[in-house]
Design brief:
mainly alpha; FA_desaturase_dom; transmembrane; membrane
């Protein structure tokens, strides 16, 4: 995945690419590698499950910084807020979306949400462009206000790192190609954007279809804004697997098709999810807890679309 991301960029930066179509192909190929890094390397590494070696996990977690995002911001958003409170409105940062998207039946519905199942894919495509530009700055400021990054000078240091890594990323992913590639600047910029459109659509879809579907629950928090009831049962009722039989697909997306196992055991490397999934499923059924799983990725996308359409038309589940 690292080679799939870097090799096309290296070829681009040599200046030997004169064909616009080849330029687009190389950038899009790099985008596939970027997706692989996000799902198959940094995701486990930041969870501390890629290796038993903590230093190696930290180093590999920085691959997220190499693709223009930020490991520290992601760890708070994903590891802390999403994994602790999946599908809890106001706590799960993955469902806290801009006003034009409604991912929970417990949030206010607007008239424009009726069409979100049609336009959401465009905004999914823009997600990594948002990451490399404004999102990390907005998130890190909000997380500071929430009480994170509260050690002496911690916020300033992390903000400096965010800026520094982004300058490094833009230097080799966009600025150098603008200098080296014998094409008009707008063609290079468009090819760069196409890379992110592919990456954003792939990553956003994989993550969202595991939680925003008709089968999963959207529980209300208790009066302390915490999960009401058993945490492990909460992970099962709010999460769904998809395409569990496809080994190739599972490898390509870093085992994220086994989201149930990942949410129960985020400290276990994804290469083991397939083996433990049967145990998890049998145990869940033994105790009468739902174990959600869709046979195919396409089926999961269809259910996700159905849920988005429902959320755009109804105020509450069952209403």
């Amino acid at each position: 995945m690292l080679a799939l991301f870097f090799v096309p960029l290296i070829i681009i930066n040599t200046g030997i690419v004169s064909s616009p179509w080849l330029l687009f192909l190389l950038y899009i190929t790099s985008g596939l590698g970027m997706s692989g890094i996000g799902m198959g390397i940094m995701h486990d590494a930041i969870h501390g499950s890629y290796s038993k070696n903590k230093k190696l996990n930290k180093v590999l977690g920085l691959t997220f910084n190499l693709i223009g995002a930020n490991a520290t911001v992601w760890k708070i958003q994903h590891n802390v807020l999403h994994h602790t409170y999946p599908n809890i409105d106001g706590a799960d940062d993955d469902i806290n979306q801009p006003f034009f998207l409604r991912f929970s039946p417990n949030t206010k519905r607007l008239r424009l949400h009726r069409f979100q199942y049609l336009y959401v894919w465009f905004f999914y495509s823009l997600s990594t462009i948002s990451w490399i530009t404004a999102k990390d700055f907005v998130k890190i400021t909000r997380f500071k206000n929430m009480g994170f990054l509260n050690k002496k000078n911690e916020f300033k240091k992390e903000l400096g790192k965010v800026i520094g890594w982004k300058l490094l990323y833009f230097s080799y992913a966009l600025i150098l190609p603008l200098i080296m590639v014998p094409q008009a600047a707008w063609i290079v910029v468009l090819a760069f954007i196409s890379m992110h459109l592919v990456t954003g659509l792939l990553i956003s879809t994989v993550f969202q279809v595991a939680h925003i579907i008709p089968d999963t629950d959207f529980p209300m928090p208790d009066n302390k804004n915490k999960i009401s009831g058993d945490w492990h049962a909460h992970q099962l009722v709010t999460t769904s697997n998809f395409s569990p039989r496809s080994k190739v697909f599972s490898w390509l997306i870093g085992g994220l098709n086994y989201q149930v196992e990942h949410h129960l055991f985020p400290n276990i490397c994804h290469v083991h999810y397939r083996d433990i999934s049967k145990i998890v499923e049998d145990t869940a059924r033994e105790f009468g807890i739902p174990y959600h799983s869709k046979k195919t990725f396409i089926g999961a996308i269809a259910d996700h679309t159905k849920m988005l359409r429902f959320l755009g038309r109804k105020n509450m589940l069952g209403a």
